[in-house]
Design a protein that fits this description.
The structure is a homodimer.
Chain A (H helix, E strand, L loop, with lengths): L3 H12 L9 H11 L6 H11 L6 H25 L3 E2 L2 E2 L1 H5 L1 H19 L4 H30 L5 H26 L4 H28 L2 H4 L5 H4 L5 H9 L2 H12 L5 H11 L2 H22 L4 H14 L5
Antiparallel strand pairs in A: 1-2
Chain lengths: 321, 321
C-alpha cells in the first residue's frame, strides 16, 4: 500500500518526459511547456490508488494515468481560452503566450494524445476503459457548458449547481479511481462504490473550496479571501444565500453584487453569516464526506488496503466544525 | 459492388438522426445544426467502399463511417474558428451563430462523440481502428498547424506544401479507405495499397482544386475564379510559380501580391501562363492520379470489385490535358 505522496512523486517522474514529436514545433512546444507547469497530478494518482486498492499496480495503470492527466490538461488549455485567463499556476497560459489559434489546436492534439495513450492498454481492458473515458470526457464538456450557462443566469438552483460541479469536477476524479479499479481486477460492485466515493469526495472538496474562499484563513489558504465574492461567482454559498435570505437581505445582496463598493466582501460575508451560510456549507461538506467514506467502507476489501485513500480523503477535505 | 452515389445516399439516411442528448441544449443544439448542414459525406463512404472492396459491408463500417464523419465535422468547426469563417456551406458557422466559446466546446464534444462511436466496433478490430484513427487525428492537427505556419511565411517549398496537404487533407481520405479495408478483412499489403491510393488521390484532388480556382470555367466550377489569387493564398500554382519565374517576373509577382490592383488576377494568371504553371499543374495532377490508380491496380482483388473506386477516382479528379 503506497501513500498518495509517494505515488505522486513516482507518477511525476514517470510523466516527466517529452510527450510530443519535435515537429511542428509551433504546435507541440506549447504543449510541452504547458505540461511542465506541473500540478499535483491528483487524477493519475487516483488511478494508481484505485488499482492498488485491489491488486499490485499494473503497467496499464501508468498508461491510463497519463491519458487522464493529458485529458485534464486538454480541458485546462481550452477552459483558459474560454475564461480568457492570462495565468495558470503563475505562468502564462498557452493562448496568452502563443495565441488563441495555437491554444485551440494544441488542446485538440492533447486530447488526441490522451486517446493514443489508451491504445497501450491490454486488449482485455481496452473496451471498458475507452467506454468510461469517453463517457467522462463528454460529461466534463457538459459541465463546462452548464458553468458558462450559469454565469449568464441571474439565479441558479442548488440542485443544478450540484449537478454542474459533479460533471465539471467530480466525475473525472471518480472515473480515475474506477479506471484503476478496473485494471486492478475489481468486480463491478466494488468499481461502482469506488466511483461514488470519488464523486462525493469531489463535491465535498468543491464545497470546501467555496467555503475557504469566503471564510478561510488567508495565511493558510494561500490566496486572497473573497475572490469569488468580488467576481460575483456563483458558489455554493451565494446560491444557498439566495435560497434562504429574507426580502430585505435579498435586495441588499443584489445591490452589493450590482455595485463594486470597497466593503462589498465584508458586507456580503455578514449576510452569509447572518443566514448561517457558513454553518450550512460545513454541514454540506461533511454530509458528502460522510457519504464518500461510507461508500469506501462498503468496498469488499480488507480495511488495510483502504488506508491510503482514507488518508487522502481526509487530507483533501479536512474535517472542520 | 455499390457505386459511390448509392452508398452516399444510404449513408446520408443512416447518419440522419439525432446524434447528441437533448441537454445541455446550448452545447448540443449547435452540433445538431452543424451536422444538418450536410456535405457529400465522402469520407464515411470511402470507408464503406474500402470494406466492400474485400467483403460485404459490415455493421462496423457504418459505425466507423459515422466516427470519421463526426471527426471531420469537429475539424471543420475548429478550423472555422481559426479562419474566422462566417459561412460554411452557405450557412452560418457555429462560432458566428453561437459564439466562439460554444464553438470551441461543441467541437471538443464532437471529437469525443467520434471516439464514442469507435466503442461500438467489434473487439477484434478495436485496436487497429483506434490506432489508425488516433494517428490520423494527430496528423490532421499537424497539417492544420503547418497551414497556419505557412500563411505567415514569405516562401514555402513545394515539398513542404505537399506534406502539409497530405496531412491536412489526404491522410483522412486514405485512413477512411484503410479502416474499411481492415473491417473487410483485408491483409496488410492490400490495406496499405488502398491507403496509398487514397493519399495520392487526395493530393491529385487538391492540385485540381488549386488549378480550377485559377483556370477553371466559372460556369462549371461554381465559384468565382481567382479567389485564391485575390487572397494571396499559397497554392500549388503560386508556390511553383515562385520556383520557376525569372527575376523581373518575380519582382512583378511580389508587387502584384503586395498591392490589390483591379487587374491583379488577370496579371498573375498571365505570369502563371508565361511560366507554364497551368501545364505543370495538370501534369502534377496526372502524376498523382497515375500513382493512385497504379496502387489500386496492385491490390490483389478481382478487377470487378475495384470498379466503383475507379469510377469515384475518375469522377473526383477528371483527367484533362
Amino acid at each position: 500500500m503506497q501513500s498518495f505522496e509517494l505515488l505522486s512523486r513516482k507518477f511525476a517522474l514517470h510523466f516527466e518526459q517529452q510527450h510530443f514529436p519535435a515537429e511542428p514545433a509551433s504546435l507541440y512546444q506549447p504543449n510541452e511547456y504547458f505540461l511542465k507547469l506541473g500540478g499535483k497530478r491528483i487524477r493519475p494518482v487516483l488511478c494508481l490508488m484505485g488499482n492498488e486498492l485491489f491488486d499490485d499496480i499494473k503497467t496499464d495503470a501508468w498508461e491510463v494515468g497519463s491519458a487522464i492527466e493529458l485529458f485534464h490538461n486538454f480541458t485546462l488549455i481550452h477552459d483558459d481560452i474560454m475564461d480568457k485567463a492570462p495565468l495558470r499556476r503563475g505562468m502564462e497560459t498557452i493562448h496568452a503566450k502563443y495565441g488563441e489559434n495555437v491554444a485551440l489546436l494544441a488542446g485538440d492534439v492533447m486530447l488526441v494524445k490522451a486517446y493514443q495513450q489508451l491504445e497501450k492498454v491490454q486488449l482485455e481492458f481496452q473496451h471498458p476503459i475507452l467506454h468510461l473515458f469517453n463517457k467522462t470526457a463528454a460529461e466534463v464538456c457538459e459541465g463546462q457548458q452548464w458553468d458558462m450557462d450559469f454565469e449568464k443566469k441571474e439565479t441558479v438552483k442548488l440542485d443544478d449547481y450540484l449537478r454542474m460541479i459533479e460533471l465539471k469536477t467530480s466525475v473525472l476524479l471518480a472515473a480515475s479511481l474506477k479506471m484503476g479499479a478496473i485494471l486492478g481486477g475489481a468486480g463491478e460492485r466494488n468499481q461502482n462504490l469506488l466511483y461514488e466515493f470519488g464523486k462525493k469526495l469531489g463535491i465535498a472538496f468543491q464545497v470546501q473550496d467555496d467555503y475557504l474562499d469566503a471564510f478561510g484563513d488567508p495565511q493558510k489558504f494561500g490566496k486572497q479571501v473573497g475572490g469569488d465574492i468580488l467576481a460575483n461567482k456563483k458558489t455554493f454559498l451565494l446560491i444557498h444565500a439566495f435560497e434562504t435570505v429574507n426580502d430585505p437581505q435579498k435586495d441588499e445582496l443584489n445591490e452589493l453584487l450590482a455595485a463594486n463598493a470597497p466593503d462589498k466582501v465584508e458586507k456580503i460575508l455578514k449576510i452569509f453569516r447572518d443566514c448561517k451560510v457558513d454553518e450550512w456549507a460545513l454541514e454540506l461538506k461533511n454530509k458528502y464526506l460522510d457519504e464518500a467514506f461510507s461508500h469506501l467502507e462498503d468496498i469488499a476489501v480488507v480495511s488495510k488496503r483502504k488506508q491510503p485513500l482514507k488518508e487522502l480523503g481526509q487530507f483533501l477535505v479536512k474535517r472542520e466544525h
